[in-house]
Amino acid sequence: MTTTTTLGYDDLPALLQRLTGDEKHDWSSLSTLDVVWVLHDRVLEEGDRFFLSKGHGPTATYAVLAAKGILPPELLDGFGTFDSPLGHHPDRLLVPGIEISSGSLGHGLGMAVGSALAGRRVYCLVGDAELEEGSNWEAVQLAGRMELATLTVVAIDNRSSSHGWPGGLEARFALEGWDATRVDGHDHDALAGALSRRSVRPRLVVAEVEPK
After folding, report:
1. DSSP state of 157
2. Sign of torsion over alpha carbons 94, 99, 105, 106
3. Which DSSP state fits 138?
4. What pLDDT, on a 0 to 100 scale, did the predictor assign at position 55?
5. Which residues of the chain have pLDDT under 70?
6. What is the per-residue pLDDT for 25?
7. What is the torsional sign of CA 192, 39, 187, 198?
8. Does domain 9-208 have CATH number 3.40.50.300?
9. Element holding 122 (H helix, E strand)
10. For the whole model, what pTM was predicted?
11. C-alpha–C-alpha distance, residues 156 and 39, integer Å
């Protein structure tokens, strides 16, 4: 489903104000806003897949989907209500533009590896704390060994992991055979450049934002 309405980045604050009722996850969601916007505005091509593994804060993604005409903006007003398709965790069966049902952390990266194995170009958005879930590292190891060059993981780093990442997330992924880089998570040009870059190996883009 698409709508005839397309809006710009400057319209996102007004769209976000229509999504109320889950304020405790505002920062989790807002930390992803620039990445999700750049992906949908400048990076994703026909046939690419976007997996929102960081699904416990979906409001930024809902706002971007509305701005891009994928969701009717009026749906935002019912966010989280009984009969709304827009839940606090996104449901791929109910929301156009949502490719995996998520919110229970640690599953999206494994699914992204499976999709990349099937030959799809996949962008998977995770959080730095989410990467403490052990299942992620099985996926990271497999992707590195199999050189899944169509897989890009974007990790939002708001320093919310329990114990931190000695050497940085980049070092952990590089050890497993990934190309890894860090950029300002609000710099659209830097994000677009990093996310559009191709490699013969899977890629990690760490998007650094303000501490939670």
Report:
1. E
2. positive
3. H
4. 87
5. 1-5, 22-25, 27
6. 57
7. negative
8. no
9. strand 122-127
10. 0.92
11. 14
Q: How is residue 39 annotated by DSSP?
A: I
Q: What is the pLDDT of residue 23?
A: 64
Instruction: Name the amino acid, one letter, at 120.
Output: R
Ordered by start, the domain boundaries in the chain are 9-208
Q: Which helix (H) or strand (E) holds 62?
A: helix 59-67
What mean pLDDT is reported for the chain? Answer: 92
What is the C-alpha radius of gyration for the chain, rounded to an integer number of angstroms? 16
- Work out whether the CA dihedral 38, 42, 43, 46 comes out positive or negative: positive
Contact 38, 98 (CB under 8 A): no
Q: Kindly state the helix (H) or strand (E) to which residue 171 belongs, with its residue range.
A: helix 168-175
Q: Which residues contact 127 (CB under 8 A, 6 or more apart)?
A: 28, 31, 54, 105, 155, 156, 158, 160
Amino acid in position 155: A
Tell me, what's the pLDDT at 3? Answer: 45
> Given this model, what pLDDT does residue 106 score?
86
Nearest to 139 by CA among 165, 164, 162, 173: 173
Q: What is the pLDDT at residue 1?
A: 41
Question: Cα torsion for 68, 69, 73, 76, to the nearest 10°?
Answer: -60
